[in-house]
């Protein structure tokens, strides 16, 4: 059975009872800088227990929520680029401390995941289209960047992990920064939330399904992942509406029997009931707004600028 | 409130009680040619009563259902092109009989509706990209074709009807053939059904919303419309699943009270309840499969070939 | 016979003897603002005599030369956008003074000329892709902008002038601003010079040939044209090299006879000799650099930003 | 100094005195099948002497000349696809005989070289966009195909050879088939000649410059290369015209002195004189026709169909 998934740790956290109260093994921190219109959230999954509860691997997930993102306000988008640059540098610094990447002459392989021909999946390829790489030039900067758009399995016949492993072995980067379009639960997140994580890319994440994970374990070097939700799974949207309906019925009908029937259903059984209603085809379908082309175009600039600010300070 | 819409007359018909039984003012004909893998349906809306019942204007809607369409079987796709050409010629012949277009030197303006940058909405523009036009050449063929991709209002600031009216007045075509991506109710129709109608394009149809209609009334010349569903409205998919749930609950719960509550709801009230559950944002969202780029690419060839076969016989 | 053409008035002027000395009916003004890295030139063709000499219609041609344009320096590109905005406003002000456009509620139709599928010809369509139009919104700004990408005749079967005339009649703009990729004589101009003129678009200009002109005479409203050279005609490049060779031979050979032969050739005859050497196919061919995609992408932002700055001051 | 290059062995051969007479170490065979509109030429460079003379590595170069290719005649294009399939199978058979690839379960890595954003350089990427790969499916066919569009160094910062070496090591294909846009000498070859060679891709070939070669030596497995000229180097076109001019002058001027001067110049010195006239910037510039988008689109289908016919016989 397909899962009702979200790629955002912050949404996973919110889905816990009490709107994301205490979960053992998971820490949550929220803040907003003075005069900033960007809300920051850091979800840290600290141990195996937290990972099991969240259905996501151990690591740090930083979320930038910016309601006006990619609406056409360039000053605002630039502010978001700056914040992304700050958070990227913080993660890189932390990797340096842990001796996972070298102090000097950092070589980054930027990876644009997704299908350039499918608008909501084209975020990664479009970011790479804007990104300035410098590995082939004698620039002598402190950071060397190379980049690749590996394509999707339907077009290559290969796993993205295979392609990247080969390129990494051949060109020896120290760090992968992967950019991907994500699936969220809530349509309000579409195009307005950037997630940055040090856990890489995991099976089932992204708009198209990447079967293999892209992580330090699979690729041999640390993987930072930058993602923005551009779609909501069709199953998620149906699921959420039905959950609301069941709640409505339970309160509205106010009959013991009705209450009995639905109360007897544990959350797992309710989930089961809903999933039975969902057509199997829903698993692959996604929901996206009609102006997604403008959103992806603007987001791709905001993200490429963020990477430029972090690693090519003038 | 937004409507749970389908652009396919055949789906509208199916939604009537008794799976599309007799409706006054609407005639239905289904057939399949010998050895053909294409199912043909003709829905004719004969009068105002039929139009009101169907929520679509009077006219003829021919549907070609081809389950294997755009899956990569070129012979099959070619068969569909041939059938589309036959149906196009039949409609043109009928327009000639009604003296709506001239006997000789027919000049067709082909129009590719939709946004070329949004994959499921790019069908019309891609068909025009494949189409051979000949108006600017001294070919002396019997049919003259010109073509335009007018763009969408968010990019032009103009109604498509305004752009077309101007071009028609200036270049004097006899007939518009408009190609558009449609919204269906059922995900099984995505990429597998072609609708051809002599009623033109109507408000609310297509993947993006065209506010004004493109019809003989608005443009001054007959408008044939070729459409293929590439999306399902997010609201439709949620609506249908909830309808199933209500049915399930009514039979499963088997309590008088429950039955009472839901039975008391007329179909209109049920619809009302469901619509209240649907978030207003759903109205603009659509559901589409991840391999829509290949589907649209193949469909655009099948349709442009159909037009070539109909009007450029070698 | 094809002509060795340039779309830049400033190059036409330079080609006169004495590197563009005095020409009756043509005035020239060059300036550079303090601290600016942009060189400005204004060629004004004042009367019929000047028009004949220059092979271009009467009017004003402002050239912005910016050697570092579209090389990746965003600050520099922004400076050029600002200068373009200034010059646009100056031309609009002058049209207002001449009562050619209204004082208030100016409605501009922006036109992106060229073929979006051919990289060096895609400048106009890409500018329109970046441009914010507002005619369809109730914004109440002082300037209303609509936009169209009319396509090229090989794709539409229609003259661009026909398409625009129809749209203008239907939507009633006061002014056309047309953006087009130009052909220069010198490869040093590729991507580094912006020409703004109040004379519109003329036959034979642009990368693809527009057969009909887009001018006040043909469209009924004033036409400002913004162009940047992205190609050099193959014939021009051959012609110029051969001219150099003839010069070289005449000085190197230093023989009376040789001198006699070439001296006997008038400039017209020399031109004739060269044109005989050029293959007829050269007429349609153009020369362009391999990184033209990046150049066109960056230029399209610089120009759309210039238009935004001129007409949407925040 | 840049070279006046052609990627076509058949043009290199023609440039020899006597229009490609006997050259030691090079064999030439021309044929045309009955009723076929395709002219076939095989240039075999047999030894080091031939390689030096031709400036191309030892191996077989098969050229299909098809004057009407990609003009819109689908039957003709299909005939060319069939011929390409035949020649591909012949080369694969020969590799099998030489035990360079296995008898069974051949795994091919198809590579689309070039920049997808630059129209004349987009042939390889567009072929890959049409190509059906099957490595990720449990099809059990006799031939397994995977595919990659590696991008160009300006976008990746990596040599194409590095990217491919890594992918080959990781996924273990037996054979590379690389598709690339080529540079020809003659504009008559643009879009009308397909070259198939077993020598791979060499430095300086292709529309963009690939610095490293893609050959059996560099990649470890045999490399078949399919190429079609879509550009002529700007230097080549100037060079050829000036050569004609010098010939004209020598015969026309008919003076001893003039003859003396030019006669004294050896072919090498003449070449030297011409190269001095060519501006250094010419080296990177190319000449291409304005309808190159349609040509590349059609060619990409012809080539992908040829590969399908060769390896996916139904």
Describe the protein's architecture and organization.
The structure is a homotetramer of 314-residue chains. Chain A has helices at residues 9-14, 17-20, 48-54, 74-97, 123-130, 153-156, 160-171, 216-219, 234-253, 256-264, 267-277, 292-311; strands spanning 26-32, 39-45, 59-65, 106-112, 143-148, 175-184, 193-197, 223-233, 286-288. Chain A has 314 residues and is of the alpha/beta class. In chain A, strands 1, 2, 3, 4, 5, 6, 7, 8 and 9 form a nine-stranded mixed beta sheet that branches. The first copy, chain A, is globular and about 70 Å long. The B-C interface holds B 117, 128-129, 133-137, 144-151, 153-159, 162-163, 165-171 and C 117, 128-129, 133-137, 144-151, 153-159, 162-163, 165-171. Strand 9 of chain C pairs antiparallel with strand 9 (286-288) of chain D.
């Amino acid at each position: 059975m397909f899962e009702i998934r979200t790629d955002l740790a912050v949404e996973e956290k919110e889905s816990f009872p009490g709107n994301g109260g205490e979960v053992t093994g998971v820490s949550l921190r929220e803040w907003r800088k003075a005069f900033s219109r960007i809300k920051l959230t850091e979800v840290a999954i600290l141990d195996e227990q937290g990972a099991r509860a969240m259905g996501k691997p151990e690591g740090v997930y930083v979320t930038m929520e910016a309601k006006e993102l990619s609406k056409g306000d360039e000053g605002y988008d630039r502010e978001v680029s700056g914040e992304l640059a700050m958070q990227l540098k913080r993660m890189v610094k932390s990797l340096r401390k842990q001796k996972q990447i070298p102090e000097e002459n950092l070589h980054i392989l930027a990876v644009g995941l997704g299908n350039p021909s499918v608008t909501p999946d084209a975020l990664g390829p479009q970011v790479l289209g804007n990104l300035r790489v410098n590995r082939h030039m004698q620039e002598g900067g402190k950071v060397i960047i190379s980049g690749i758009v590996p394509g999707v399995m339907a077009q290559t016949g290969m796993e993205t992990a295979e392609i990247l492993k080969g390129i990494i072995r051949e060109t020896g980067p120290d760090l992968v920064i992967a950019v991907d379009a994500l699936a969220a639960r809530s349509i309000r997140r579409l195009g307005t939330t950037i997630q940055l994580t040090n856990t890489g890319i995991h099976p089932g994440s992204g708009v198209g399904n990447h079967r293999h994970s892209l992580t330090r374990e699979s690729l041999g070097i640390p993987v930072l992942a930058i993602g923005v939700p551009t779609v909501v799974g069709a199953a998620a949207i149906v699921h959420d509406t039905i959950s609301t309906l069941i709640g409505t019925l339970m309160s509205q009908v106010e009959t013991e029997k009705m209450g009995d029937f639905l109360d007897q259903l544990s959350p797992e059984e309710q989930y089961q009931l809903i999933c039975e209603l969902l057509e199997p085809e829903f698993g692959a379908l996604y929901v996206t707004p009609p102006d997604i082309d403008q959103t992806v175009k603007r987001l791709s600039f905001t993200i490429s600028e963020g990477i430029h600010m972090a690693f090519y300070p003038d």
